[in-house]
Write a structure and sequence with these properties.
about 130 residues, alpha+beta, 4-stranded antiparallel beta sheet, elongated, 5 helices
Length: about 130
């Protein structure tokens, strides 16, 4: 195989690299569509489930207004609604990077402390997911 052919082939990522790439891509989507991203993000693989945990997104001016008005539940509802709208984009990224089919997506937001979790469940075709070999 010549050098050019090797460069054109997609790079296959292994366990920890896949998890890091997922965190990076999900944060990138948030920054692009939400206007800001979390301070930290880490992705975990357990059995047929993938969990992206993000901390410290900070509040947008709109969310801060809701909080100042004593409406933290509205901030959570707003964030969860946004995550549902982003579900297809998230699924596409997860499927692209893992080669697995996502059959379910759940999102959970919390504001004090500021933590968001994106949870993806894979097809049962492969019964075990691990950080070593998705």
């Amino acid at each position: 195989m010549d050098v050019r052919s090797a460069q054109q082939m997609p790079q296959v990522l292994g366990g920890g690299e896949v998890l890091a790439a997922i965190s990076t891509r999900i944060v990138g989507i948030l920054r692009e569509y939400y206007g800001q991203g979390p301070m930290t993000a880490k992705t975990y693989a357990v059995d047929d489930m993938l969990v992206v945990v993000m901390r410290g997104s900070g509040l947008t001016p709109l969310e801060q207004t809701m909080m100042d008005s004593g409406e933290p539940k509205r901030v959570i509802e707003f964030r969860e609604g946004f995550q549902r709208m982003m579900a297809t984009r998230y699924r596409d990224v997860i499927e692209e990077l893992t080669g697995r089919t996502v059959v379910a997506f759940l999102s959970q937001a919390h504001v004090e402390p500021d933590i968001t979790m994106e949870i993806f469940f894979f097809d049962p075709g492969r019964s075990r997911v691990s950080a070593v070999g998705l």
